[in-house]
Amino acid sequence: MNQAAASARRLKGHISSLETMTRFVLATLALASGVYTYLGVRSLLDGDAALVFFAAIVYSAAVSVAIYGFWTYLMRFVPEMREGGSRIALMGVMVLGSAMIIAMSSWLNAAALAGSAAVEQHLAESIEDYAGDLDQANSNALASLSLLPDTQRAAERFARLAEDERNSGALTGTSGSGSVVQLLVQMSAQMRELEATIANSRGTVETLFAQGQAHLATMRELVSGSGPVAPRSDRFGEEAVKLQGVIAALEQTSVAPSVSRAAADLSMGFIAPVADGGSADLAGRQDRVMATIRSSVEAQSNALSEAAAEILAQPKVAERRYVPLSSAEAVLRYAGDFIPSWAGAISIDLLPAVLVAILSVVHGAMRRAEDDLAEADRITAAEMMRSLDLHEELMRRHAAGGKREPSRENEADAPPPETEVASTEPPRPASPENVTTLSLGDRKRFDP
């Protein structure tokens, strides 16, 4: 029993001695949360600087007072709850209040702690997206160059056949420059023009791709640069607009549509010259050769058209628009990348819950220790002093009541007083045995 009483007294003494420290800790946490809330609010508000400052100060002060008051109430009431229902109800209130604190303060604290890093994360991911778009647009534009070998081979074949026909009559059996040679030279010239169109697009694509790379380099410098992130984000947006223009230009540079149309013209616009042979036999041979050339041109046209169609079927680069984010918005979007910052921001606001739990455990231990004590062991020194004062008051009133004279109306009936004989024996001092001990229950009995 004595150990339980001593333990309860020590716990109560510790709680009393730590009360100032508890208030100081709670005030410090509320102040820290208010400061970071102020920084988070400043990043969200726009307008006049004085108005923004005043609004942020008022909001952060309200948050600090709310946090301090909320946890103060819980520290006072939760440890004193003995009934399970009351304790569960207050715990539910604590959970609801904690959610409200996270909604009004913790995310702003996270914005203050990791807002700049979150905005830079947004810029970095935007760079990756734009770099992918630039590469895709460049690939689509260069895909047309894959048609260049086909057109070169076709042009060389028609030119070689024309030369063979002119020199040795390889096709008609009669050498010289006739209608067959003219047709072959014409087809070779058309393929050479198509080849030149495709080859010239290479320089334009390379120039545009170099411009896009320069914009990307500037954007990367802005992401890794120092200083406030807001002006860097604005410049990043300007570079993103320019880069999007380069990507659109690359999409329009592709010569695949032009190749497709030119390939269709080869067969649809084929005009064979009239056979100019001096004899009917030669003219007949020329007609047969030109029919063969027509079939060859149609085959070449179909091959080029199919190749161009495959290039045109490639997915186009989707138009992308850069959307700037504030620090608070960036922290919410990339919350998974900044879990430590979120944990710190929430801990500042919810750490007093640990103090509430500690006080609840300590008060519970004190109650269990006091329940094991006897009734007399629960009396404090102050209660004992008040009991002694009450005892003395009762003794004084009892003594005063014993010396009270009889009333005048009973004097006639009262017997004459006996004459006291002076005694020579000195009075005996009162001993403890002669002192009457009064209990608190005798108070009403001796009250006048």
Explain what this protein looks like in three dimensions.
The chain is mostly helical and 448 residues long. 74% of the residues lie in helices and 0% in strands. It contains 14 helices and no strands. The two termini are 40 Å apart. The model is unreliable at 407-414 and 416-448 (pLDDT under 50).
Low-pLDDT runs of 5+ residues are 407-414, 416-448
Counted by DSSP, the helix tally is: 14
Name the helicity range: over 70%
Secondary-structure element order, N to C = HHHHHHHHHHHHHH
Return Rg in Å. Answer: 52 Å
Assign an overall shape. rod-shaped
**What structural class do you assign from the helix and strand content?**
mainly alpha
Strand content: under 5%
What is the count of β-strands?
A: 0
Number of domains in the coordinates? 3
Distance between the termini: 40 Å
Biggest sheet layout: none
Summed over residues and divided by their number, the pLDDT gives a mean of: 78
What is the structure about, briefly put?
By secondary structure, the protein is mainly α. Helices cover 74% and strands 0% of the residues.
